[in-house]
UniProtKB/TrEMBL annotation:
Top-level taxonomic group: Bacteria
Protein name: Glycine zipper domain-containing protein
Signal peptide, first to last residue: 1-25
The UniProt record lists the keyword Transmembrane: yes
Keywords tagged on the record: Membrane, Signal, Transmembrane, Transmembrane helix
Originating organism: Candidatus Kutchimonas denitrificans
C-alpha cells in the first residue's frame, strides 16, 4: 500500500507531465504534506505561473491604426477610382462615388487591421471592424442630416478620430 505523500507526488507528477497548470504552489502543497525540502522545491519549479494580462501601451495600437487607416484610405480611393468611370469625360470638378466609397471602406478596415496588429492580435478583428464601420455609419448619417455646413465639416473630420478611439477600446476589451 502506498503512503499519502507518494500518491500526492505521483498525482502532481502526472499533472506536471500532462501540461495542465497548477495555479499556485501553496494550493498544491495543501493537498498533502511533502516529506522533504527537495520535493517542495521540485513542486515549486513545476508550477506554471499564469500569463500576465498586461496589454501594454495604447500608443502602438493608435499608431498602427492611424498608419494602416491612412494607407487603406488611399488604397481604397485608388481602387474606387479605377472601378468607377463616372467622371472620365467631365470638364467640371467631379469626385466619383467609387472613390468616396472605396476610401471609406479601405480606411475603415485598414484602421481596424492596424489597431489589431498594433495590439499584437490580442483582440477580435471582426469586432474591431464592426465597431469602426458602425462609427463611420453613424458619423456619415449625422453629417448627412445636418443642415449646418460647419457642423457637417466638424462631423466628417471627427469620424476617423472617433473610429480610432472606439476601435482601440474594442480591441483592448476583447483581448482580455
Amino acid at each position: 500500500m502506498c503512503s499519502r505523500p507518494a500518491i500526492l507526488i505521483a498525482m502532481i507528477s502526472a499533472v506536471a507531465v500532462s501540461g495542465v497548470p497548477i495555479a499556485h504552489a501553496q494550493t498544491a502543497a495543501r493537498l498533502g504534506s511533502l516529506d522533504s525540502v527537495a520535493e517542495r522545491s521540485w513542486l515549486s519549479a513545476s508550477v506554471v505561473q499564469p500569463e500576465s494580462q498586461d496589454q501594454g501601451s495604447v500608443f502602438r495600437p493608435l499608431l498602427f491604426g492611424a498608419l494602416f487607416g491612412a494607407g487603406g484610405f488611399l488604397a481604397g480611393a485608388l481602387v474606387g477610382d479605377a472601378v468607377d468611370d463616372e467622371c472620365d469625360n467631365s470638364t467640371d470638378y467631379c469626385i466619383p462615388t467609387g472613390v468616396v466609397l472605396g476610401a471609406a471602406t479601405g480606411g475603415t478596415f485598414g484602421l481596424a487591421l492596424g489597431v489589431h496588429v498594433g495590439n499584437r492580435s490580442r483582440g477580435n478583428m471582426a469586432l474591431d471592424s464592426l465597431a469602426a464601420a458602425a462609427v463611420w455609419g453613424l458619423g456619415i448619417t449625422v453629417a448627412i442630416v445636418s443642415d449646418d455646413d460647419t457642423a457637417r465639416a466638424i462631423t466628417l473630420a471627427a469620424i476617423p478620430i472617433v473610429q480610432l478611439g472606439v476601435t482601440v477600446g474594442v480591441e483592448r476589451a476583447s483581448g482580455r
